[in-house]
């Protein structure tokens, strides 16, 4: 709070009162601070891959382009860094569209059971592919027998589920099991994704939904992460009137929860 005082002085010179105005500057300052932090984060996040690319390009220009071993490897690094920057810019543009209220949902009535089943099957295929085979991950499905119809933007909701599943796999140890579960509550459906990974320290658990926040910056970067996935997921889920949160025990694993409003009107109408 900032307080400004003014004395009320009569023409006679007699002081008849005191006015005190309290300004709530904390909120403004916080927003301004966040904005500055965000710009600084974006600059830093873009500078890192650019600096790394420059050194590889310099090495290529200095003669490595003629080396049949080095050249393809250096080119691959620069390609990966470029891809990562493109992903980050796409994420930033999506956040900016959400911030400015320009990101409209294309709502459809979707069977959430089928959607989750589809996403989990896709990841199951992925972990059994040659690239992941030696990691020995497992996916456990605990979904409902019945259809659950909810009104969502299917592309956006799949993006959220993909993000949570990708993280679960990214932060899982070899041989880890990832369990995808769906439960019906009174007026919500609850999807949870549990992993047996490294977990998240208590102090960080709510911050992971902030833009660019990562518990382990170096590790996240090495995995190609932008630190924006969960921030986008939170915005998208809240656009749908839902909630997303996480619960974790360090060294044991993490569970991400996603709850969406659900009105079981269809069932009654059809019966
Ligand atoms: P990133 O691109 O870094 O994965 P996210 O926004 O998706 O960005 O996640 C933010 C941070 O939250 C990650 O860097 C990581 O520290 C933490 N995190 C997310 N999911 C998990 C998980 N399943 N287990 C442990 N840590 C996680």
Name the descriptors.
271 residues; alpha+beta; five-stranded mixed beta sheet; binds adenosine-5'-diphosphate; two-stranded antiparallel sheet
Give an account of the 3D structure:
The protein has seven helices and nine strands, in the order ββααβαββαββααββα. The chain is of the alpha+beta class. Helix 4 (154-170) packs antiparallel against helix 6 (229-239). It is extended. The chain starts with a strand and ends with a helix. The model has no long low-confidence stretch (mean pLDDT 92). Adenosine-5'-diphosphate (ADP) binds next to helix 4 and helix 6. This is histidine kinase.
Order of helices and strands: EEHHEHEEHEEHHEEH
Helix count, DSSP H or I runs of 4 or more residues: 7
Instruction: Choose one word for the global shape.
Output: extended
Ligand inventory: adenosine-5'-diphosphate
Largest beta-sheet characterization: 5 strands, mixed
What portion of residues belong to β-strands? 15-25%
Q: How many strand segments?
A: 9
Average pLDDT reading: 92
Question: What is the helix fraction of residues, given as a range?
Answer: 40-55%
N-to-C terminal Cα separation, in Å? 59 Å
For the biggest β-sheet, the strand order reads 4-6-7-9-8
**Which value, in Å, is the CA radius of gyration?**
25 Å
Identify low-pLDDT runs: none
- Judged by helices, strands and strand pairing, the structural class is alpha+beta
């Amino acid at each position: 709070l900032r307080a400004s005082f003014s004395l009320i002085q009569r023409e006679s010179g007699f002081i008849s009162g005191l006015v005190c105005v309290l300004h709530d500057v904390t909120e403004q300052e916080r927003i301004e601070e966040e904005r500055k932090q965000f710009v600084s984060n974006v600059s830093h996040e873009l500078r890192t891959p650019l600096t790394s690319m420059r050194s590889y390009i310099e090495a290529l220009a200095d003669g490595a382009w003629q080396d049949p071993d080095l050249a393809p490897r250096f080119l691959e690094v620069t390609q990966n860094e470029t891809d990562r920057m493109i992903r980050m810019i796409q994420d930033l543009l999506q956040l900016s569209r959400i911030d400015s209220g320009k990101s409209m949902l294309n709502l459809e009535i979707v069977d959430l059971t089928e959607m989750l089943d589809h996403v989990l099957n896709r990841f199951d295929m992925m972990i059994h592919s040659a690239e992941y085979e030696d990691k020995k991950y497992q996916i456990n499905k605990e979904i409902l027998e019945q259809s659950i119809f909810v009104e969502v933007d299917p592309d956006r909701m799949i993006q959220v589920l993909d993000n949570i599943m990708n993280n679960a796999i990214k932060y899982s140890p070899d041989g880890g099991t990832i369990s995808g579960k769906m439960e019906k509550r009174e007026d919500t459906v609850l999807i949870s994704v549990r992993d047996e990974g490294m977990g998240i320290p208590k102090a960080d658990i709510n911050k992971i939904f902030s833009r660019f926040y990562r518990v382990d910056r170096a590790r996240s970067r090495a995995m190609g992460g932008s630190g924006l996935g969960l921030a986008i997921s939170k915005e998208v889920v809240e656009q749908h009137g839902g909630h997303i949160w996480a619960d974790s025990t360090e060294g044991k694993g993490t569970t991400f929860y996603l709850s969406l409003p659900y009105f079981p009107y269809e069932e009654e109408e059809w019966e």
